[in-house]
Amino acid sequence: MGIGDNSSRMFAQPYYRALHTTISRYVAPYDVADRPRDLAAVNAWITAAEAQHVQPFIAFYHSRARPNELPSVAKYALEVKRFIALHPRIKVYSAWNEANRGRATKAPGDGSYRGPDPRHAAGYYLALKSACASCTIVGLDVLDSTNIASTIRYIRAFQRYARGRLPTIWGLHNYSDTNRFRSTGTRAVLATVRGRLWLTETGGVVKFGSEFPNHHGAGLKRAKKAITYMFRLAASNHRIARLYIFDWFGGTSSVRFDAGLVDRKGKPRPGYSVVRKHLRG
Q1: Which residues pair with 245 in a beta bridge?
Q2: Which of 36, 102, 179, 235, CA to CA, is 20 to 30 A from 67?
Q3: Domain 2-280 architecture
């Protein structure tokens, strides 16, 4: 189990260090190697992670400079090769964060971003696989949905375009199952793919829209319950090999999406105690 958060400050937090986790996930623009500001941020994060003996897991995503433009497969291949050349020690990647965003489901946070179609998602995966044959690659990373059938259709289309070179590791953000205390979507994805499944983003939602409010701290209690269920769901199938809780730092009362294990000042929330108890066994 690990934590996904793009803040390098996380690694210096005493409450984070107390968990003794050894993996963490960062979402980087696919063209990060060409963007000095973005590259400085990911370099600082990688340095902080490695100083704590934490294995970095880099998931590529939209360009910050052109967030609404998706790259061609050739452009993507060129950019990720540049990043890999700069960081030869990193061996765990995801081809594209939430590839089905805006196509199979509505998503929290940056909901205006539209993911690649299945053909391009398969092209990105094959390009990344070619760029680093020795790397561990999450070939397709998808977000679940209240309508999981649309996500399954996306996965099946991806499988056709992958031309027989299917991933052995698949990624799922199963917020809907975890926070609605069900397993429908997770089981449907497991039935559709072969190999291992990583829960590349999951966790207890403190606040998101009208369905998950945080009135008078109710969201904090609900998120704690969801995290308890998250661990039970992850343990329900031996093919679920990893989970990355998103995220570490919570936000202010004005943020749209909040699933932090600690508040914005680093004070543990109720869900943190569940994580720490679980890791202590």
Answers
A1: 3, 202
A2: 179
A3: Alpha-Beta Barrel (3.20)
